[in-house]
Amino acid sequence: MEFTVDTDARTQVVDVTDRVAGAVPSDATGICTVFVRHTTAGVVVNEAESRLLDDVAAFLGEAVADEGWRHDDLDGNADSHLRALLLGPSATIPVVDGRLDLGTWQSVLLVECDGPRSRRVTVTVTRSA
Ligand code: ZN
Q: What is the pTM of this model?
């Protein structure tokens, strides 16, 4: 299953937990893989507290310099690729009886590193035997 997220800032964290949960069959037990099919966005599991989401964006901005990278000669977005590299393109979440078995403070977050863009997120549920 797949859904689309439209972002509206260069670096932005979007809580996609409800959309991922909605893609999990109600009778499934196993693992859910959330994957973003892009090289300048990432998927992580963390707390969706609004100030923390701003901190994540600020942290990524400080962790990777905006300019001075070789890939910028091609399309000017090396910083976006490198920020996404820190995050990874997927997260794996246990599924129990059709619900995401997340901790109390855990949410599934799509992290845009080169927005605004339209992002395709793939949700795959693998059932345990
Ligand atoms: Zn590029």
A: 0.96
- Tell me, in angstroms, the distance from the centre of ligand 1 to residue 116's CA: 14
Long-range pairs for 57-64: beta carbons < 8 A, 24 or more residues apart: 57/9, 57/11, 57/12, 57/13, 60/11, 60/86, 60/111, 60/113, 61/11
**Complete domains list, the chain, with CATH:** 2-127 (2.60.120.460)
**H helix or E strand, kind and range, residue 21:** helix 17-22
User: 32 alpha carbon to ligand 1 midpoint, in Å?
Assistant: 29
Report the separation in Å between the CA atom of 73 and the middle of ligand 1, taken as the mean of its atom positions.
9
Query: From ligand 1's centre to the CA of 75, what distance in Å?
Result: 5
> How remote is the CA of residue 71 from the centroid of ligand 1, in Å?
7
pLDDT digits (tens, 9 = 90+) for 33-54: 999 999 999 999 999 999 999 9
Element containing residue 35 per DSSP (H, E): strand 30-36
**72 φ/ψ angles, rounded to the nearest 5 degrees:** -60, -25
